[in-house]
Amino acid sequence: MSHQAPGADRLPALTRRDGELDLLVRDGVHIVGAGAVWAVGDADGTLGGGGHGVLGQGPYAEFTPGPDTRYDLASLTKIVALWPCAGALWQSGLLPLDEPLGRWWQPVTGRPARSVTVRQLLAHTAGMLPYTRFEQLYGREPAAIRAGVVSAPLHREPGTAVEYTDRAAVLMTYLVEDLGGAPLDELAARWVWRPLGMGDTRYGPLGAAETARTAPTEYEESVGTHLRGLVHDPSARLLGGVSGNAGAFSTARDLARFLTALLAPPPQLPWGEAWITESLREQTGGLAPARGLSWLYAPGTEPAEGTFVHYGFTGTGFWVSRRLGRWALLLTNKVHHDRTTQPLTDLRNAFRQAVFG
Predict the structure, then answer these.
(1) What pLDDT is stored for residue 3 in this prediction?
(2) At CA 269, angle to CA 266 and CA 273, rounded to 5?
(3) Closest listed residue to residue 250, CA positions, set 308, 183, 204
(4) CA 299 → CA 146, 222, 230, 308, distances in Å?
(5) Exposure pattern of 176-188 as b/e (b: 16+ CB <10 Å)?
(6) How far is it, in rounded angstroms, from Cα 227 to Cα 211?
(7) Judging by beta carbons within 10 Å of its beta carbon (0-12, 13-18, 19+), is residue 154 exposed, middle or buried?
(8) Which of 21, 151, 207, 254 gives the lowest tally of CB atoms within 10 Å of its CB?
(9) What span, in angstroms and rounded, lies between the C-alpha atoms of 8 and 10?
């Protein structure tokens, strides 16, 4: 059930040190069990933020999270890398949203995915298989994984259900790289991160100096330690760390720049106002849950309110509302401790309600 959003005049009080949001997150990290960084802003930039708790267990208990702590973004990679790169290609006329792939992208000729559209891939209505299991199905070679993803059967008829799946983002990665003529990490740096001054944002594996201020994620048996600076997502790890579904690392400081640009796109951005407007509207034809392109309408809100969210499995999340002219982010490394999601879900929902209603 949605609640009245606080007016812009209330945001300074909400976002000040020891204000409502700061206390909410401070109290929430005790229940969630992981430290957290938060920030809220508008079209002019960050209004306020803070960090609470510690980065992890054992040696990581010495470190407190802050605006320059790098987090494994997990599925926020879909938003900060893949989605704007798709937008740059769309705005340049290279990426049709509603032409079935088989009519213009040779790799899917004669394959089940030939009937799927880019709009369906980005709205998660393409009917792709709901699981990845790349190593089990295709082995460890990137070329074999690509061949398997491109030729995979569909799970259901395109356009008949909303079913979130990483396969849509992986297929889109291949498509974007083919059209862009470069790997996704290069395209994201060229079209998104450098233009916005996002100097902390990159794909891993990270170097030693960068890893030193990166939040650790889960213990990985095959590595013999907690993952830190190496992507948590097994599909992205199998693909060398660079994928559209996961793999990017960033900080609250950089994500604030990105979210601010969604409200006030710099004119030189190759994925600007037109792409953002197209994406942040209902794209699922009345199917539930309602989604835009890559973005989800925030649970607990009505689509008419226009509050969008994306989450990352590691414990990350951010929101944006063009209608209200505000954005928010809440970054944790929850999987470092365990995969119990309800405490984090409760904190996310309370945080969203306080900022957006």
Answers:
(1) 80
(2) 70
(3) 204
(4) 33, 36, 30, 9
(5) bbebbeeebbebb
(6) 10
(7) middle
(8) 207
(9) 5
pLDDT in tens, 44-94: 999 999 999 999 999 999 999 999 999 999 999 999 999 999 999 999 999
Sites in the chain below the pLDDT cut of 50: none
What distances in angstroms separate CA 31 from CA 73, 134, 328, one per listed residue? 21, 35, 21
Q: Strand 316-321's sheet: what is its strand order?
A: 45-52, 36-42, 326-332, 316-321, 307-312, 296-297
Amino acid letter at 68? Answer: D
Cis status, amide bond into 289, omega within 30 of 0: yes
C-alpha count within 13 angstroms, C-beta hemisphere, residue 339: 4
CB-count burial class (<10 Å; 0-12, 13-18, 19+) for 3: exposed
- Give the pLDDT score at 222: 87
E-only strand ranges, 123-258: 202-203, 219-220, 225-226, 248-250
Threshold 0.85, pTM exceeds:
yes
Tokens of 341: 């999601």
Tally of CA atoms within 13 A in the half-sphere of 340 that contains its CB? 10
SS3 category, 3: coil
Query: Position 24: which residue type?
Result: L
Helix/strand/coil for 226? strand
Contacts of 96 (CB under 8 A, 6+ apart): 90, 104, 117, 118
Tens-place pLDDT, residues 131-168:
999 999 999 999 999 999 999 999 999 999 999 999 99
CB 118 within 8 A of CB 87: no
The CA–CA distances, whole Å, from 147 to 43, 111, 142, 168, 169 equal 42, 11, 9, 14, 15
SS3 288: coil
Residue 48 CB partners (closer than 8 Å, separation 6+): 12, 14, 15, 16, 17, 19, 21, 22, 39, 40
